[in-house]
């Protein structure tokens, strides 16, 4: 199915550790002018407060720039727009993605709007990027990831690289956010890119 370049990205935030990755990716999406359908679980909101000091939706809005193209949905509303396969979308990312959410998506149980939206992405053959942040991984975790990969999802662990010689935590966070946007085919300016045989050129 061909989707317009200006179709929205569905963005889910759940309760796995890694809230800074979500904040960085959402900010970059806003800076790119990409429409976003945002869904945050109750534990996702708690995570934003505990890890980033972001208090509720107003706090997240203040931390991530222009929200003129962001639509926010209640995670308990499984009948909202992102739950429908007929609603155009260029794909979905769940960042961070808890192992409970990952397991539910793998099983197709769709307990809330995040999980139903992910189910829709899979059935409509749209990009689905899941960003887990867990270690170590049990066999159950790995089998769920394998099942989702076979179904068409991209499993992108929040594992930043170091070849760009990061100088701050923000550099590490941006590395992961950049990979997310790359796989959604969204232009961004998050850090330098690798060039064969040399270190990435650092931004001035």
Automatic annotation (TrEMBL):
Sites where the protein binds FMN: 15-17, 41, 98-101, 133
Keywords: Flavoprotein, FMN, Lyase, Prenyltransferase, Transferase
Residues of the Flavoprotein domain: 9-184
Signal peptide, first to last residue: none
Top-level enzyme category: transferase
Functional note: Flavin prenyltransferase that catalyzes the synthesis of the prenylated FMN cofactor (prenyl-FMN) for 4-hydroxy-3-polyprenylbenzoic acid decarboxylase UbiD. The prenyltransferase is metal-independent and links a dimethylallyl moiety from dimethylallyl monophosphate (DMAP) to the flavin N5 and C6 atoms of FMN.
Protein name: Flavin prenyltransferase UbiX
